[in-house]
Amino acid sequence: MAHFGPTRRSLLQGTLAASALSLSGIPARAEPQWKRYAGTTIEANLIKGPRGELLQKYASEFTDLTGIKVESEVIPEQQQRQKAVIELTSGKPSFDIIHVSYHVQKRQFEKAGWLADLTPFMNDPNLTASDLRVDDFSAGGLQFAQNDKGEMHSLPWSVDYFILY
Known about the structure:
Blueprint: H1 8-23, E1 41-47, H2 50-57, H3 59-66, E2 69-75, H4 77-90, E3 97-98, H5 102-112, H6 119-122, H7 139-145
Parallel strand pairs: 1-2, 1-3
Helix pairs in contact: 1-3
């Protein structure tokens, strides 16, 4: 699948990604522009476990902030990985955003062009809290989230440090 410019899906991914930070405990300030996609529904493909459950638990807060309804599916990790590849390869995934397992999927997803660059969304004060910047993330997290060109293809909020062992 070729990488294209901004699309409805990539805009939604960026909006949800930025708001996912607020759901994970990093404070964010709701700004009126965040409602520009109100009435939209997005589908999240999540891995069964604390992170997926946390995002599901606080999805209503995301809806309150943005007006975007979040539907989600939580799948055991091994099955989620398989589903992700099959659906992304088809070009018609049933989800708009996905939890990426860095240690297994990052290179595959980047090579296939399945990940959008979130840097423009992070730098857009209409989509991301003005007090949140890319350099707020740790260098270790950014090492996983950014490619060699400095494009942030995911949010480094779920870095598993066992990768370092």
